[in-house]
From TrEMBL, chain A:
Protein name (record): Ubiquitin-related modifier 1
GO cellular component: cytosol
Position of the Glycyl lysine isopeptide (Gly-Lys) (interchain with K-? in acceptor proteins) cross-link: 107
CDD domains per record: Ubl_Urm1
Record field: transmembrane: none
Keyword terms of this UniProt record: Cytoplasm, Isopeptide bond, tRNA processing, Ubl conjugation pathway
Taxonomic path: Eukaryota, Fungi, Dikarya, Ascomycota, Pezizomycotina
GO biological process, one term: protein urmylation
Pathway the protein contributes to: tRNA modification; 5-methoxycarbonylmethyl-2-thiouridine-tRNA biosynthesis
Family: Belongs to the URM1 family.
From TrEMBL, chain B:
Gene Ontology terms describing biological process: Mo-molybdopterin cofactor biosynthetic process; protein urmylation; tRNA wobble position uridine thiolation
Gene name of the encoded protein: uba4
Cofactor note: Binds 1 zinc ion per subunit.
Entry coiled-coil feature ranges: 8-35
Pfam families cross-referenced by the UniProt entry: Rhodanese, ThiF
Function comment: Plays a central role in 2-thiolation of mcm(5)S(2)U at tRNA wobble positions of cytosolic tRNA(Lys), tRNA(Glu) and tRNA(Gln). Also essential during biosynthesis of the molybdenum cofactor. Acts by mediating the C-terminal thiocarboxylation of sulfur carriers urm1 and MOCS2A. Its N-terminus first activates urm1 and MOCS2A as acyl-adenylates (-COAMP), then the persulfide sulfur on the catalytic cysteine is transferred to urm1 and MOCS2A to form thiocarboxylation (-COSH) of their C-terminus. Plays a central role in 2-thiolation of mcm(5)S(2)U at tRNA wobble positions of cytosolic tRNA(Lys), tRNA(Glu) and tRNA(Gln). Also essential during biosynthesis of the molybdenum cofactor. Acts by mediating the C-terminal thiocarboxylation of sulfur carriers urm1 and mocs2a. Its N-terminus first activates urm1 and mocs2a as acyl-adenylates (-COAMP), then the persulfide sulfur on the catalytic cysteine is transferred to urm1 and mocs2a to form thiocarboxylation (-COSH) of their C-terminus.
Keywords from the named record: ATP-binding, Coiled coil, Cytoplasm, Metal-binding, Molybdenum cofactor biosynthesis, Multifunctional enzyme, Nucleotide-binding, Nucleotidyltransferase, Transferase, tRNA processing, Ubl conjugation pathway, Zinc
Binding site for Zn(2+): 231, 234, 312, 315
Active site residues according to the UniProt entry: 248, 422
Name of this protein: Adenylyltransferase and sulfurtransferase uba4
Domain of life from the UniProt record: Eukaryota
Keyword set includes Nucleotide-binding: yes
Annotated GO CC locations: cytosol
Cellular compartment(s): Cytoplasm, Cytosol
Amino acid sequence: MAAENTIPVIVEFTGGLEMLFSDERKHKLSVPTKDDQGKAVNIGWLVEYLCDKVMKDTRKEMFVLDGHVRPGILVLINDADWELEGEASYALQPNDNILFVSTLHGG
Amino acid sequence: MESANSIAATLRLQITATEKRLASLKQQLADIEEKSAENVSVSPEVPVTQKTKWPLSAEEYKRYGRQMIVPNAGLKGQLRLKSASVLIIGAGGLGCPSSAYLAGAGVGTIGIVDGDTVEISNLHRQILHNTSTVGLKKVDSVISYLKNLNPNATYIPYDIHLTPQNAEEIVSNYDLVLDCTDHPTSRYLISDACVLLSKPLVSASALRTDGQLIVLNSPPLPVGNPEGGPCYRCVFPKPPPAASVVSCGDGGIIGPVVGVMGVLQALEAIKLIVSGKLKGDGEPVASSMLLFSANGNPQFRSLRMRARSPKCAACSENAELTLKNLPEMDYAFFCGLTAPVNILEAEERIEAKEYEKLSKGTKQHLLLDVRDKVQFDICNLEGSINVPFSTFQGGRPLSQEGEQPSWLPESFAPDSPIYVVCRLGNDSQVVTRKLKESGLGTREIKDIRGGLKSWKEQVDDSWPEY
């Protein structure tokens, strides 16, 4: 795929989620600019992409439940709560940093 | 013999020193009693608490001087600390360091809530307990430490768990709450109580090498006021699936990681008290969450968080939660129950002692240990093979159609039995069921009931339980 048709993004996992992604906290990805329908890719698309293309672990339900990021996982776009940025509909921009944080409960 | 003699000599010295100290304490007590008796009889007009022209005692100026001379703290800050009351819920890995720093800083009243007793497995991180307090109530162990550290404060023990029924009575006595607990059920309960009683909440958590810190309900404005700080339910409207909740006992925890988070809780508490923002006066601050990852680069990361949610079930104007219905809330139900697994029939399970007999026979069999590799490497049974539980989770089949799973030895006869074991006997049942359903089922496949814990109880008491 030509470089102009892809967007570089950094995806990070913490709080134990990295265990679902080959124990790697930081993934430098190059994702297509458009989805199958020709629409600009957004976070919702990225979550599916991570499940299909990046996650080797079989425990999908630990990341996505009923089509949504499972309860107990926070999504941060460039260190800001995704709720401040439009949640799943936020369109990915070049060099975005997307962080998935699993809440911890121990103390 | 030499070393026994030197130990005895050291002990004699310690005894002599302790006897001297005891004598001195008795003398001090006698002096005070004599003086107060004189005061009463000779000069009854002298008030019991003498007022000086200084707002703190000479000892307090000395004790807190190093923090009082920091700009923004000052005498005013010290007086605020002295008149503040802080409730610390949980006297474990977070509650120990946070309560120590708050007591040291001169917080006037500290309440500690915890219904547990000290166990030896707590000591690597719960730094106010020690080997000699194992078996004591955690609140008593902590308060005995704190009294030694700073006798000026009032310490109030609650040797019970916080419940929907007692939350209002306990929390309402304090200005500020620290959530130092270890489960979503208590985290939702504490947040709800703080929202209803308008208390700011400093919440922290830790697991393995990661920690999280967030100040909630700050400013603690009334329910329905969108200018108030978000609560736990604003950030986490739905609880995580019970299966995804990992405790320190199961997942592990590095002591300094939870220690760092507890220290940061104390710091946030001191900042709130000293700045006079307990009641929500002053400029509102944007909400943020601090992440700590021991192996991250950078180790600390500050995240910008959402405001109060207009749909929040606790703090929005649409919330139905009230102090009146709080006692009826069922937090265990809300968060989902994690009862011990019990999915097998009796004939699908085998007692540890029966397995031991059978393993001494000549018949070929396989012992499958489904703990994490790191646990397997700590101790394992001879001849067992390790295939971690996570390998069996999720929807994918064990192996390609018609092939054996890669972990099954090639020489292993198709009718030889497989026994499955884990730490406590929960995961092993799930794996046993999965193996039986996946075409390996013509042979005998059994779960060792109660796991390696039973192995220790029934077969080998030298087994190193961790």
